[in-house]
């Protein structure tokens, strides 16, 4: 299983500490940009935008990203969210309720 391989790499290469930057995280086997951004947001409370195809499609329809943008969708989203690039948190305009 890939999880065990990643755990071994983190233990041996990073002395048991999960890397705190995107570039290092995506070097781990099976870790893509979305997973790496989730780790940054939820484990380290760093500003990041985990983007999957659904987020990208909705963002495109709202005009937040350009579908033909070359590069990662989360980078394009960040550049259009001034609160995000300024280091603040982006609060949802519709409250979440269960």
UniProtKB/TrEMBL annotation:
Its EC number is 4.2.99.18. InterPro entries: DNA_glycosylase (IPR011257), Endonuclease-III-like_CS2 (IPR004036), HhH-GPD_domain (IPR003265), HhH_base_excis_C (IPR023170), HhH_motif (IPR000445). Gene3D superfamilies: Helix-hairpin-Helix base-excision DNA repair enzymes (C-terminal), Hypothetical protein, domain 2. One of its GO terms (biological process) is base-excision repair, AP site formation. GO terms for molecular function: class I DNA-(apurinic or apyrimidinic site) endonuclease activity; DNA binding; oxidized pyrimidine nucleobase lesion DNA N-glycosylase activity. Residues 73-98 are annotated as: Disordered. Keywords: DNA damage, DNA repair, Endonuclease, Glycosidase, Hydrolase, Lyase, Nuclease. Residues 1-90 form the HhH-GPD domain. PROSITE patterns: ENDONUCLEASE_III_2. Coiled coil: none annotated. Belongs to the Nth/MutY family. This is Endonuclease III protein. The gene is nth.
């Amino acid at each position: 299983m890939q999880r065990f391989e990643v755990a071994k790499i983190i233990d041996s290469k990073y002395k048991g500490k999960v890397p705190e930057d995107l570039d290092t995280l995506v070097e781990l086997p099976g870790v893509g940009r979305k997973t790496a951004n989730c780790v940054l947001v939820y484990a380290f409370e760093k500003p990041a935008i985990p983007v999957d195809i659904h987020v990208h499609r909705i963002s495109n329809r709202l005009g937040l990203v350009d579908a033909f943008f070359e590069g990662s969708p989360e980078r394009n989203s960040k550049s259009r969210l001034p609160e995000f690039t300024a280091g603040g948190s982006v609060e949802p305009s519709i409250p979440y309720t269960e």
